[in-house]
Every structure is written in C-alpha cells, then in structure tokens.
C-alpha cells in the first residue's frame, strides 16, 4: 500500500483493512511523510512500514512537497500502462 503522506493515516488504515479482508497474507506500507504518532500506529497494523520522512513538526502532507498537485486517474493509468510495456 503506497501513499504520498499520512497525516492521520485514515486512508492507509482503511486500505490495510480492505487488503486483509481480501485475504492479503502480508501488508507492506510505503509512505512519503507521516508524523511519528501515525507511524507508530501504522507499524502495529502493517507487517512492514517504510517512511521517507517522519518529522516531529507536522501540519500537512503538502508542506513537505515542492509540488503537491492531485494526479488525475487517467494519468495514473497511462503511467501504469507505460510501465507494463517498458522493458526493465
């Protein structure tokens, strides 16, 4: 499960619950930035957690990104299609 940031972790916790309900045997969470208290809660729910930044002073996810514009669904689908056809 990947997220650019988790202020409260609500979206990630919902995704973790959904993945477990669908039978996932292991949940790995990767998040760009999250406050320490959210990280501790995520560590208890996920099997593995990777966080790029865990700042003590946290107000909003967007403050840690130079550009924090929403990505349209069509752009995500385009990138996934391109990744699937690009040789590694």
UniProtKB/TrEMBL annotation:
Which Gene3D superfamilies does UniProt cross-reference here?
A: 3.40.50.2020
UniProt KW keywords: Glycosyltransferase, Transferase
Q: Does the entry feature the keyword Glycosyltransferase, yes or no? A: yes
The protein depicted here goes by the name Phosphoribosyltransferase
Signal sequence extent: none
Q: Does the keyword ATP-binding apply?
A: no
- Its Gene Ontology molecular function terms? glycosyltransferase activity
Organism, scientific name: mine drainage metagenome
């Amino acid at each position: 499960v990947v997220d650019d940031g988790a202020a409260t972790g609500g979206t990630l916790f919902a995704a973790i619950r959904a993945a477990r309900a669908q039978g996932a045997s292991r949940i790995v969470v990767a998040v760009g930035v999250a406050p320490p208290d959210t990280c501790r809660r995520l560590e208890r729910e996920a099997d593995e957690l990777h966080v790029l930044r865990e700042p003590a002073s946290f107000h909003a996810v967007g403050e840690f990104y130079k550009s924090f514009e929403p990505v349209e669904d069509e752009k995500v689908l385009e990138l996934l299609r391109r990744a699937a056809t690009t040789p590694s």
